[in-house]
Amino acid sequence: MEDTKKLLAEYRSLMGLDDAASVARKEEIAELLKKSATAGTQEQAREFVKDNLARIDSDMAVLRHKIDSESYGLLPLSYIAKRYFGKSAAWLSQRLNGTPVRGHVYTLNDEQKSTFNNALQEIGDRIASLRLA
């Protein structure tokens, strides 16, 4: 049971990461959990999934509430995605909107949320400093 908790905690820390090493480790953890599948392991996995789906739903609701359709249109998503993440606007939009991609819903992890928030702050500061002569 304790090993299952440790594996699920490690998996949680890797969620949202899509680099090759993280993906490989997540697959390894999933395989380890499958091999040791007991009733207790299955229940812990169910709770893990349920908790994370609830967290994602909550994050999405908060995000959607904070960014109404008018404000959302003001965000330079393409610029933010390319400049701060090295990704496409579609990549960022999928994570902000919780759009399913290849059967999985991806969201921004804590580090990416921080990057996004910092980008918004920096863009806001740059816009606020602009003045006509």
What characteristic shape results from the CA principal axes? Answer: elongated
Beta-strand percentage?
under 5%
Estimate nothing, just give the exact number of structural domains. Answer: 2
The side-by-side strand order for the widest beta sheet comes to 1-2
Number of helices: 7
User: Can you count the beta strands?
Assistant: 2
Look at the helices and sheets and give the structural class. mainly alpha
The biggest beta sheet reads:
2 strands, antiparallel
Helix percentage = over 70%
Distance between the termini: 67 Å
Oligomeric composition of the shown chains = single chain
- H and E order: HHHHHHEEH
Q: Provide the low-confidence segments as ranges.
A: none
Mean pLDDT: 83
Nearest-angstrom radius of gyration?
18 Å
Descriptive overview:
- The chain has 2 domains: about 1-55; about 65-133, no CATH class.
- It has 7 helices and 2 strands; from the N terminus they run H-H-H-H-H-H-E-E-H.
- The longest helix is centred in the middle third of the chain and has 28 residues, at about 40-65.
- A hairpin with a 2-residue loop joins strand 1 and strand 2 (about 105).
- The protein is mainly alpha-helical and about 130 residues long.
- Helix 1 runs antiparallel to helix 2 (about 20-35) and helix 5 (about 75-85) crosses helix 6.
- A two-stranded antiparallel sheet has the order 1-2.
- The chain starts with a helix and ends in a 5-residue tail after the last helix.
- About 75% of the residues lie in helices and about 5% in strands.
